[in-house]
């Protein structure tokens, strides 16, 4: 597995911070086209204390958030912008065709695969798939909107 971005690099492209940072590595990126990132799911994730204590399962909304965060890294890298510059962020604009196929549990490694289907002005549309051991656990179409915040 070739690692293109480690956690320290990712922190430059995402405004999120632990415990809400859900991307650990980027292993493949093709600007304006696609990204593959990794999220290592560990037992010490704070959400496992309540979801569910007897049978820990990663919440589906957090799998979607991990996909969105990887998409944001792709967008910032592709446009040459950086959230640390303070003027731009990417926000969810829509989520369609969401499907959850399997549960994600501690010890799993999420492989986040995102492909751009459209990028116009400030809107990105992306096909997203999260896999564990090659099996799809979640798929979705995500729309992301670039917003000026200052």
What keywords describe this structure?
globular, 150 residues, six-stranded antiparallel β-sheet, 2 helices, 6 strands, alpha+beta, Thiol Ester Dehydrase, Chain A
How would you characterize this protein structure?
With 150 residues, the protein is an alpha+beta fold. The chain has one domain: Roll (Thiol Ester Dehydrase, Chain A). The protein has a six-stranded antiparallel β-sheet, with helices on one face. A hairpin with a 2-residue loop joins β5 and β6. The N and C termini lie far apart (39 Å).
Major sheet: arrangement of strands: 1-2-4-5-6-3
| CATH architecture descriptor name | Roll
Percent of residues in β-strands = 35-45%
Major β-sheet annotation? 6 strands, antiparallel
Which class do the helix and strand fractions yield? Answer: alpha+beta
Q: What is the CATH topology classification name?
A: Thiol Ester Dehydrase, Chain A
Report the helical percentage. 10-25%
From the alpha-carbon coordinates, what is the Rg to the nearest angstrom?
Answer: 15 Å
The overall pLDDT average reads 94
Silhouette? globular
For CATH, the homologous superfamily is named as Hotdog Thioesterase
Terminus-to-terminus distance:
39 Å
Query: How many strand segments?
Result: 6
Domains counted in the coordinates: how many?
Answer: 1
How many helices? The count is 2
The CATH top-level class label: Alpha Beta
Order of helices and strands: HEEHEEEE
Uncertain spans: none
